[in-house]
Amino acid sequence: MEWMILPYRRYFDFSGRSTRREYWLFYLFYMLVLAAVFVMTFSITFSTTDRHANSGPALVLGVFGVLVAVFVLGTLIPALALMVRRLHDQDRSGLFVLISFIPFGGLVLLIMMLLAGTRGPNRYGPDPRDSSHASVFD
Fold first, then answer.
1. CB–CB of 20/117 below 8 Å?
2. Which residues of 2-16 are buried (b: 16+ CB within 10 A; e: fewer)?
3. Residue at 32 is within a domain
4. For residue 69, what pLDDT band results from cuts at 50, 70 and 90?
5. What is the pLDDT of residue 137?
6. Confidence (pTM)
7. 22-47 per-position pLDDT tens digit
8. SS3 string of 61-87?
């Protein structure tokens, strides 16, 4: 659970490095939250359809839509920062995030997120997998 919420503690931190574990567990948490909201929305919508023919489902979808929008917007900065730190772990510039704006760039960026980081220190900081620097990322 610690790895899933670590990007929220490092909200505006675009410097340093992050491991694949931190990246993928954060996105697992992100998808689980969205899936839970999706399931709650549709279970409440279908359970209120019989009692409130017109206004019930629209109200529920509106409330949960606002909650999803707040969650997604609140997660946008930590997700970008995490992606930049993940690129830093591979000794790449954080500007590679912009590659997602060209066709098939998102696929290239996904492949970059799957690659292992450089071992040992690089120009963006110490290796986050090195136990002697663990206190830096706590």
1. yes
2. ebbebbeebeebeeb
3. yes
4. confident
5. 43
6. 0.79
7. 999 999 999 999 899 888 877 776 66
8. HHHHHHHHHHHHHHHHHHHHHHHHHHH
136 assigned to some structural domain = no
**What values do phi and psi take at 125, rounded to 5?**
135, -175
**138 within domain boundaries:** no
Nearest to 21 by CA among 130, 138, 113: 113
Helical ranges in the chain per DSSP H: 2-9, 20-48, 55-89, 105-114
Give the integer Cα–Cα distance in Å for 34 and 16.
28
Q: Which domain holds residue 108?
A: 2-131
10: Cβ contacts below 8 Å, ≥ 6 apart: 78, 81, 82, 85
Domains: count for the chain:
1
Q: What percent of the chain has pLDDT over 70?
A: 81
Q: Which residue carries 């663990």 as its tokens? A: 134
Look at residue 137 and tell me if it is in a domain: no
Q: What is the DSSP letter of 19?
A: -
**Does the pLDDT of residue 58 top 70, yes or no?**
no
Higher pLDDT, residue 30 or 64: 30
